[in-house]
Structure formats: structure tokens, C-alpha cells
Amino acid sequence: MKIVTVDKLKKMIRNNEDISEIDIVTTATCGIMSGTMAVFHIPFNDKFRKAEKIYLDGYKGFVGPCPNEYLGKVDAVFFRNGFLFKRLVKGEELEAKVLADNKYYNNIITINDLQKAEMIGTRMCFKNYSAITNLSDKPVKTIFHRLPLKRGEASFSGCGEFNPLENMVIKNEKDLIGKRALLNGADALILGFGTRASLEKPNLMISADMKEMDSYYLGGFLTGDGEEVFNTVAIAVDVKQHIEALKKLDKDIALPLVNIFGREIIDISNYGEVWENVDLRPKLHKDRCKNCKNCLAEEYCPTMAIKKINGEIKISKDCFGCGICSICPHGVFEIKLGSICGIPITCRQSDRKRALDLAKELKKRLEKSFIF
Ligand code: SF4
Ligand code: SF4
């Protein structure tokens, strides 16, 4: 059984090499996936009749659906809380707080105390994205950018030729139901299409145990509309079954540029324009740092990857390669993000580095035991 990662396959196609010996390609994507929720079963030390409100380290969840009357346990759903999910998966202690019978009860928990911690993505791996710009003269707050999006700037999402759904020929939702995947490093199950999916514009509903996840692959991402969740998904694709889709390269995958107001299409470009000859991570020029009182890069980094410790700037592995740190007025961070239809990209909301890391991880696991 010959297995290759998606980047290797695309390189072979670009070089006109023979791919007929390959059986499986591991594809992957990483980006903001707004429809990410987590279902927790949270224990408390006291018995109460029924929870009315629930919080984890100040984040508000939604009680239910099960009532758990007089059990001192709460089923709850949380969503849009990427930083919370990452901390939980890391194994950090969190304060659980519940309002029941007009009284608050507290408990300190870690993920190991939760009998169930399941992530369900209601809209993952979205195949058809658009790049966004602003044709007005007024900067606008948006989920598509960390900073107010100005005229002459653009942002985009999507891992292009690496995305699992770009590499599959999907004729029926049933072909996907029950298929295995990796979600943030955990063995995951595809439940079918996600919300707003169609055969032309598919996305996936995927579920996995958060206790098995690797915190590197998920996290929070701050946008102009608050906190979001980013995830990484990898899926093995059978070459014979999906050969036509697998042959597609970035340049063959359309990326329309739309105006934020009304979303009318201004022009149609492709993923080659935004992913070729760009940097996946910023270069750090520490020598240029002026040690400003307020570090703009630290303040606006969407994943909180930048820390100024004793006057020294550091980037952690939480970096997503979004490019916002170019805001530093002294050029400490250098990253080439490219442009679309002549408009410079100033915020990237997908991360090909993490996607490739998970595609490699999936290849390793498949080679150890073929379970997909
Ligand atoms: S804004 Fe730039 S120069 Fe100022 S402290 Fe931050 S990294 Fe250093
Ligand atoms: S590219 Fe810069 S701003 Fe973006 S996540 Fe990395 S360090 Fe933060």
C-alpha cells in the first residue's frame, strides 16, 4: 500500500511524474471553523435539582439537553470558545460554575474529570470559500479580519489544493457518512454533510473525542467579531476513486473576490495567487524591536502567540501565519502574504503548515495500522 501526503502528490503532478503506483493520499485543512461546538458532562461535588446556568472559567455555556435532575452533574454545550477548548485539551485546570436552585456551586476540573468531552463540527472543511475586500471608504469590523478591513485590503480562507473536499469526487452524501478522519489529532468520524452543504458546495459534520486531541491543532482566533475556533482536519483519499479531483492544483481552484457589503463578486482568481511564493510563518527580526510601551503585534495577534518577556519578543507554536503582526511599525515581523486581483492580503484565516503537519501524522498512522 503506497501512501503519500497531499503536498508530495501535487509536486509529482507539477513535475509530470507517474502517480499510478500511489494508493492513498493524506489530505488536510486548517482554518477557522465557526460551527465548532463541544458537548461536556461536567461533575460537581454537590447535588442540586437542575442546572439553570453554566460557566467554564467565565465562558458561558448552554445547559442541556439532558436534565440530570438531582445528580450534581451538568450536560452542557459550548461553542465559539477556541481558547477555552485549547486550554482544556492541554489538560489545564478550569473553574466550573453552575447556577441551580438560586445558588452557585463551583468545582475545579480538568478534561480527565469530564466523563464526556466530544467535539462536533457542524460545518468543517468548507470547499468553496471567497476572498473578501471592502469597496467602501469606511473600515469595517468583520469576522473575516482581526482588524477593521480597509479599502485596498483583502483576507481569505481555505487551504486550496490541500483541502480534503477539493480532492474528492462527491456524488452522494452517503459516500461520506461513517468515513474516518483525524480531527485535531483525534480519531474522528464523519457524520455526513454539515449545515449549508450541497453537492456543489460541500462541507462536513465531524465528531471526535477531545481527550484524544493534540492542543497544537486547535485553538482560538480573534476576529473583528470576537473569538472563533480553528481546527485541523485530515482525511485519507483513495486515488483510484478520486483521481480527477486529485489532479487539481491551486491554479485550478477558483477563489472569487467579493465585496464585504452584499458579497457581490468583483473578480474570480484562484488559490495559486494566494498560496504560491508566500511565507507560512513570519520571520522575526528581534534586532529591529524598539521595545515600545504597548506592543501592537502582541496586542493584536489573533492567536495570542506573541509574548514580550523581559523586553524580548517571542513567537510561540500557537502562531497561525495570519500576518497581522506586520502591524509592528518597525518591521520586526516579516511575512509575505501575497495578493488577490492586485489587492494585498492583510489577514490569512487558514494555516497550511498545521494542515500539512496533520496530513503527515495521518500518513504515519495509516502506515502503522491501516484503519481508514
Ligand atoms: S510593536 Fe514592534 S517594535 Fe514595538 S515592541 Fe512590538 S515588536 Fe517591538
Ligand atoms: S503570523 Fe503573527 S499575528 Fe499571526 S498568529 Fe503568527 S505571530 Fe500572531
Automatic annotation (TrEMBL):
Segments forming domain 4Fe-4S ferredoxin-type: 280-311
The keyword Repressor appears for this protein: no
Transmembrane segments: none
GO molecular function: 4 iron, 4 sulfur cluster binding; metal ion binding
Domain of life: Archaea
Pfam family, one: HcyBio
Protein name (Swiss-Prot/TrEMBL): Methanogenesis marker 16 metalloprotein
Organism from which the protein derives: Methanocaldococcus villosus KIN24-T80
